[in-house]
Amino acid sequence: xxxxxxxxxxxxxxxxxxxxxxxxxxxxxxxxxxxxxxxxxxxxxxxxxxxxxxxxxxxxxxxxxxxxxxxxxxxxxxxxxxxxxxxxxxxxxxxxxxxxxxxxxxxxxxxxxxxxxxxxxxxxxxxxxxxxxxxxxxxxxxxxxxxxxxxxxxxxxxxxxxxxxxxxxxxxxxxxx
Length: 177
Description:
Layout: H1 3-11, E1 16-17, H2 18-28, H3 37-49, E2 53-59, E3 66-71, H4 73-84, H5 96-106, H6 111-135, H7 138-163, H8 165-174
Antiparallel strand pairs: 1-3, 2-3
Helix pairs in contact: 1-2, 1-3, 1-4, 2-3, 5-6, 6-7
């Protein structure tokens, strides 16, 4: 996700201080990965240099000055372009899991154990997401649904890989130098 675009989108509702942006971001998007304050201010600095935000006011404080940021017309245009551009689907053509399977087979380790451990991890994560979804608001429910659908697809891959493990083992060992 583009943190810069998310911050710009949040600024469209009105000027804010960096800590307000961080809090708003974390409430809406950062449940699993909240932003660090340094990341917020570094991003705002880049947006400022790029002309996408401007300083709307400065409030003196005990520490550093507190700047309030506002989105510029160029920033609004940039958000519009970002929203209009579809995201390229991530195909995971060379996943870490596939690499682990091949390495296990090449080194004579039980690749089925790799699949079993991964399946258990996926199921644990799915249970946690299902519990979170039951108590979350609509936005959190949608985030959980998105993750659950991806995990279900991964589980289908795990089952397919388990069914094809003997054939993969033959292919991998025949190609060994």
